[in-house]
Amino acid sequence: MGSVAAGRGARFVVGGGGPPTALTRLRLARYALVLFCVVVLSAKQDFSFTRPLEFLHQNSPTPQKYLLETMGGGVALLDYDGDGRLDIFLVNGGHLPGPFHRENSKYWNRLFRNNPNGTFTDVTVAAGLHHAGNVYGMGASAADFDNDGHTDLYVTNFGANQLFHNNGNGTFTDITVTAGVAAAGWSVSAAFLDYDNDGRLDLFVARYLDWDPGRNITCGTPFNAYCRPDKFPGTTNLLFHNEGAGRFRDVSTASGITAFVGKGMGVAVNDFDADGFPDIFVANDGMEQFLFHNEHGTRFREVALEAGVALNDNAQTFAGMGAAFADYDNDGKPDLLVTNLALEKYALYRQEDAGQFAYTSLTSGLAALTSRSSGWGVGLHDFDNDGWKDAFVAQSHVLDNVERIHSGLRYLEPPALYRNVRGHFQAQSLTGASPVAGRGAAFGDLDNDGTVDVVLPILGGRPLVLMNRGAAAGVTIRLIGVRSNRDGAGAIVRSGTQTVYATSAGSYLSANDTRIHLAAPAGPISVEILWPGGHGQTVRGIPVSRVTTIREEIE
Amino acid sequence: MSPIPLVLILLFAQSVNPELSQLVETGMKAKVAGDFDDAIRAFRRLSELAPELAAAHANLGAVYFEKHDYAESIGPLRRALSLRPDLIGSEAMLGTALLAIGDASASIAHLENAGIGDLLGVALLEVGRPREALDRLEAALLQHPGDPDLLYYLSQAHGRLAKSVFDRLRAQPGGTARTQQMLGEATAAVGQRAEAEKHFAAALASRSDLRGVHFALGELALTGGDYSRAETEFRAEAVRSPAHAATAYKLGLVLMNRGETAKALAELTRAEKLASDMPETLLELGKALVLAGDVVAGEKRFRRVLEVEDGSLLAEAAHLQLMQLYRKTGRGADAERERIALQRLRSRGTR
């Protein structure tokens, strides 16, 4: 590993080799340009579909059709052992109705270590993550909340949630009680973010319905079907402030979050108005979406309607499920993509003027592509490394008997990749993709080759690992915050027209690679980093197809 | 139905016989007090003592009727009418009682004589004469607009009339194109989409010039989210029905969903020319105009939606579009007004 000076005295660590000379750089750039043209003309990005993980998700379907049983299946990508490779944590359901029998190994959550040869090893017991408690598992979030250099895990459940502290030796310790983040009820997606820029990651938890199996009702005639969410009351989301020393303080009410009762599913984070403080989007099921504007780290104000992201273009609600908050049109401003049910069309909101979004599902081509699909986990990432973020969606209808209700719809659907061609989306067929019950989806560079791979948990099935093949060259950047939180969450990284917001949040029930991914089809690139708190840093010569670590420069 | 005229007749009877007078008084008092069994005993005894006195039978039948014992009321009422056919109250009660026990056929003459149009409509419907029933029920509805019972029977009458026509169409040898079209519409209405498509395809196979079939297929495709197919079908319908505003609107709507804004604008403009104040057209046309950069024309359409559809789901959409349009053009106060109007509508639950 070579350590290279960059920008205004900033230091970054490059995997392999020193800086190229000016002549070499010129030659490399020319070569890369030729290579890029060849790649674009001849290669087609695709995924290889594999099932390397010995994990069978247990959603425990029942004749009663508890809504809980069709909602689960989250995943977190995290480098738990610090070996530079992303490992995979999968969340399991449980027996229904309760007790959930999580002591039975078939209901355990599982952690798989990513081995150097591309295989995975189940390290659940060794890591101490097999004690799930009497809860029904939903999703996970991952971040280094205590800035000790080791990524920790937060697991959302129906029932109390769990915070597992990474001890740095391959094991975790359940510190939920002392940390004060157990919550209650039905938690779904969670997000770590430093909402007040104090250098410590806080925790936001989206909760779904005020429901339990004892208060279930049956829906559908002449046969049972999962109830619509409007049959049950919603509930509030939660916000925990990181007080340091492994403790959090519940600021849900003080921050204004609990003033809004929702039916939260996916959570995504970005600083949409570029005021230096992260904002939170919550995809709500069957009601208005929420956009919580961060009032400079003090309170949150719900602004979805005035910002134009609460409803579709006909002022109607939809079944918001997963959410991605990223700049798809390369104008430097984050946009929003919200997945929903078939016949609703995935909702794409392009940020036009500062803080104002326009519904662009129709004009972007996404409406026509998604009108018959139901989406859950979602990511806006540049999968083919052409410099434009594409959309990947885990798909399947919520009703396992939807064909009996609407002959034109299907319960199982293959995952979808919508390629972004200068702001307009086109369907890209995925070789080997078969219809599955997709729910969560996590995105990250599993093999550190500068491309974004996907892990797709399957409801009641075995997860899919999609390795990205044939894409043009890209870079993967690991940020290390010094004054900022150590993950660098909240940093904005720009390279040319590409803008990426550092966060593990987004999608549905899932935690993504915290590292930054950028296309670099013409060779090494330069990036500008705007760290939380507003100070900038420029780093040049970032090599392609490998991981580069950038440490926050403190002047 | 008031038995007051009968009371006058009974007064005449009282002057003739004191025992009859006593029975009349007892019967009337018991009836007024709601003591139907005592009233029945009194009027039954009266009818035995004066079997040719129509009023005695009429009152006995009336008490049974008020007791909702329709089956028992029929005999005395019939006897009363046989003695005095001009007793309109008894006629009305008899017709109603017969209908109540399910003998609609027998009730019709009495309801006709008594001039009770709404019940006559029901009786005619029950004996399988829906066309005559429709007339009676429509007339009754003019007297009692919004009456849920009348509306129910009216819908039944329309349904049966439609079914009788449908059965005739279906009985035609060889299964005509129109038969298939109607079968397609019927199966589509109950959500049998695949079946509906088969019938529509069969209709077109035998008569490709049929109007409405491509429109129906387009609707199926549109509601199923298949915009490509919907466009094909609506275009085919537009060839057959170039002056059909709904087809032009639907084609425009599909093109909007396909992201073909310029083409959608052309179709929606055509739809507006064909039918100027269709709120659905105005809304989509407004969106297309704004996307094409003609904000002023778009605003005009949204405002027109609010004029013709205040308080509907379309009005909510128009308020949203106006709010966003005003924000985009820097008219903050106007945008805020539209936001408040939208929230007010939504809180009223127009969804």
Write the SSE topology.
The complex is a heterodimer of chains A (555) and B (351).
Chain A: E1 2-6, E2 10-14, H1 22-42, E3 46-50, E4 75-78, E5 87-90, E6 110-114, E7 120-122, H2 124-127, E8 136-143, E9 152-158, E10 162-166, E11 172-174, H3 176-179, E12 187-193, E13 202-207, E14 235-236, E15 238-244, E16 247-250, E17 261-262, E18 264-270, E19 279-287, E20 290-295, E21 299-302, H4 304-307, E22 318-319, E23 323-326, E24 335-338, E25 347-351, E26 357-359, H5 366-370, E27 375-381, E28 390-395, H6 402-405, E29 416-421, E30 424-428, E31 442-444, E32 453-456, E33 464-469, E34 474-480, E35 492-495, E36 498-501, E37 516-519, E38 525-530, E39 536-542, E40 547-551
Parallel strand pairs in A: 34-40
Antiparallel strand pairs in A: 1-2, 2-40, 3-33, 4-5, 5-6, 6-7, 8-9, 9-10, 10-11, 12-13, 13-15, 14-17, 15-16, 18-19, 19-20, 19-22, 20-21, 23-24, 24-25, 25-26, 27-28, 28-29, 29-30, 31-32, 32-33, 34-37, 35-36, 35-38, 38-39
Chain B: H1 4-16, H2 18-33, H3 36-49, H4 54-66, H5 70-83, H6 88-100, H7 104-114, H8 117-126, H9 130-143, H10 148-170, H11 177-189, H12 193-206, H13 213-223, H14 227-240, H15 245-257, H16 261-274, H17 279-291, H18 295-308, H19 313-328, H20 332-348
Helix pairs in contact in B: 1-2, 1-4, 2-3, 3-4, 4-5, 5-6, 6-7, 7-8, 8-9, 8-10, 9-10, 11-12, 12-13, 13-14, 14-15, 15-16, 15-17, 16-17, 17-18, 17-19, 18-19, 19-20
